[in-house]
Specification:
Elements: H1 7-22, H2 27-41, E1 47-54, E2 57-61, H3 66-78, H4 82-88, E3 92-95, H5 105-114, E4 118-126, E5 129-138, H6 146-193, H7 197-211, H8 215-230
Antiparallel strand pairs: 1-2, 1-5, 3-4, 4-5
Helix pairs in contact: 1-2, 1-6, 2-6, 3-5, 6-7, 6-8, 7-8
């Protein structure tokens, strides 16, 4: 057993990875850090990426190479594969011989033809909520052994925490930005039409409903037009 395989070694590895993932400045950087640290930390990994779940739809994020996007597209197209099952069914799925894999016949044939022989996917979930999956890929057969699973499970837990916190921060910033833009748009309408705050907001809502655009988009357009006119 190597030093990195011992409980102490794995704990040190996870601590280092957790710090890297949770200290990134923004959401995209956090996603990239998760993938980067996965490649460094989980043995057997050639390429890595994230499959994120939002509004019932799965999309790829922070792929380490075009190969990742290509393989993920096969999973989404055929609606089968390790990442799909990890999101929907269990904590993780592993396959070490794509040529002989029978659980996902259409996907495994396409993945093998594209050059992937082994895959390991971990569900990312926190507080009962599934955020997506961490996907690991290898061009070699039998790439992911038990050490990869033992290392990958706590790594996925740390990644889910980092992802959830970064997503909450992004949502908060979006909400604050929307509030600021809507406030500016109301001020412009109040001045333009000599109306009060409540009437200005009702006007924004009315425009939003008629145009079928989101309230923030309508407000942003009004602010942009007012700035252009001022220039």
């Amino acid at each position: 057993m190597t030093e990195s395989q011992t409980p102490t070694g794995i704990a040190a590895l996870m601590a280092e990875a957790a710090v890297s993932m949770q200290t990134e400045p923004d959401y995209d950087a956090t996603l990239e850090a998760i993938v980067r640290e996965a490649q460094k930390s989980i043995p057997g990994t050639d390429e890595a990426g994230l499959s994120l779940l939002s509004s019932g739809k799965i999309t790829t994020a922070a792929p380490s190479s075009p190969l990742v996007e290509k393989i993920d597209c096969f999973q989404y197209e055929f609606e089968e594969g390790p990442c799909v099952d990890a999101i929907l069914e269990a904590d993780y799925f592993r396959t070490n011989d794509m040529a002989a894999e029978s659980r996902w016949p259409r996907f495994s044939e396409a993945a093998f033809s594209a050059g992937v022989q082994s895959m390991l996917a971990f569900r990312l979930f926190i507080d009962g909520q599934t955020l997506g999956a961490l996907n690991l890929y290898s061009r070699h057969r039998d790439a992911f052994d038990d050490e990869a699973v033992i290392t990958g499970r706590p790594f996925a837990a740390h990644a889910a925490i980092a992802l959830a916190h970064s997503r909450e921060k992004l949502q908060l910033l979006d909400a604050l930005d929307s509030r600021d833009v809507i406030g500016m748009a109301k001020g412009i309408l109040m001045q333009r039409f000599q109306i009060d705050d409540e009437r200005a907001f009702q006007l924004l809502v009315s425009i939003s409903q008629r145009s079928q655009d989101k309230l923030r988009a309508v407000a942003s357009k009004i602010v942009t037009e007012a700035r252009s006119a001022a220039r």
